[in-house]
């Protein structure tokens, strides 16, 4: 993501308010491996208190879903194969169920072993892949042998939603949240759509909703892009942008849609209430809007 000045690994966006406004309050930091920024309008004291709460929210999300923290819930689950998880972990798994079903299995967090094998230059073994093999009984999660999970395709959107919700509860009327994906309310924001290969391609207006973008070529694992097909296929789109009611839904959908033909995406959209618009960028830089 780019500008106002927003940066993310997989998203390529520029955000600017549509009209001149009073100087905003800003917070900048990192969350789940991405540069993060929050822009809001309000009193400095109220903003400082809100930003302190936001840091706690993001710390809790990291404690659940970070692959880099060996003490996180996700790291423990991947290491031990079973774990009793917190409600936020359960909530994200429930949204994963919805996305997995609606995308015919293209959204599948069990691709983490594939990521490791590509990163380390080893032969890929798909025997452990399959979200339906993950067993759950209440808060208890049990992975099948050889399985490991990654929520990199949805956790940034989930964090974005949690932060936006916390700021709404505090009464801030005009807010833009960027934690790898965008959520905004109380105003209109111009988001510039870009592609890693073709640069700036246009703009979108964000008003009381969310936008997430995925680009397989934004990070390479050897010869492969970082968005992996659970069934062995290849990405079809250079960039996919999804506008939705929630950033988590947009994030997960944009990840899966990179792997699906346009006709399949149309049917998937009907199965995912809350999606508003999908923009597809092909290898030549052509845009298709669904």
N-to-C SSE string, H for helix and E for strand: EEEHHEHHEEHEEEEEEHHEE
Q: Strand count, sense and closure of the main sheet?
A: 9 strands, antiparallel
Low-pLDDT residue intervals, each spanning 5 or more residues:
1-21
Q: How many strand elements?
A: 14
Strand content: 25-35%
- Kindly state the percentage of residues in helix: 25-40%
Radius of gyration: 18 Å
Task: Count the DSSP helices.
Answer: 7
Mean pLDDT: 85
Question: What are the SSEs and their pairings?
Answer:
Elements: E1 15-17, E2 25-31, E3 34-40, H1 44-65, H2 73-80, E4 82-84, H3 87-102, H4 112-120, E5 135-137, E6 140-142, H5 155-169, E7 175-179, E8 182-195, E9 199-214, E10 220-221, E11 224-225, E12 239-244, H6 247-257, H7 262-270, E13 275-281, E14 287-289
Antiparallel strand pairs: 1-8, 2-3, 3-7, 4-6, 5-6, 7-8, 8-9, 9-12, 10-11, 12-13, 13-14
Helix pairs in contact: 1-5, 5-6
């Amino acid at each position: 993501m780019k500008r106002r000045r927003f940066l993310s690994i997989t998203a390529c966006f520029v955000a600017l308010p549509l009209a001149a406004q009073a100087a905003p309050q800003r917070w900048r930091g990192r969350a789940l491996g991405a540069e993060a920024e929050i822009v809001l309008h309000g009193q400095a004291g109220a903003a400082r208190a809100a930003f302190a709460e936001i840091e706690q929210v993001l710390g809790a999300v990291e404690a659940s879903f970070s692959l880099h923290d060996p003490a996180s819930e996700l790291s423990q689950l991947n290491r031990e194969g079973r774990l009793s998880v917190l409600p936020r972990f359960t909530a994200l798994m429930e949204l994963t169920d919805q996305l997995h079903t609606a995308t015919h299995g293209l959204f599948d967090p069990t691709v983490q072993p594939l990521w490791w094998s590509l990163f380390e230059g080893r032969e890929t073994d798909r025997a452990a892949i399959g979200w339906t093999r993950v067993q759950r009984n209440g808060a208890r999660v049990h992975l099948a042998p050889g399985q490991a999970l990654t929520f990199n395709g949805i956790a940034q959107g989930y964090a974005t939603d949690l932060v936006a919700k916390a700021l709404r509860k505090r009464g801030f009327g005009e807010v833009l949240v960027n934690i790898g994906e965008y959520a905004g309310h109380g105003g209109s924001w111009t988001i510039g759509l870009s592609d890693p290969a073709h640069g700036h391609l246009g703009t979108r207006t964000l008003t009381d909703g969310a936008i997430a973008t995925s680009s397989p070529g934004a990070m390479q694992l050897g010869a492969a892009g970082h968005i992996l097909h659970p069934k062995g296929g290849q990405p079809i789109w250079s960039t996919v942008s999804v506008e939705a009611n929630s950033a988590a839904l947009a994030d997960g959908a944009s990840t899966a849609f990179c792997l699906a033909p346009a006709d399949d995406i149309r049917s998937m959209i009907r199965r995912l209430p809350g999606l508003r618009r999908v923009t597809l960028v092909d290898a030549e830089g052509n845009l298709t809007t669904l």
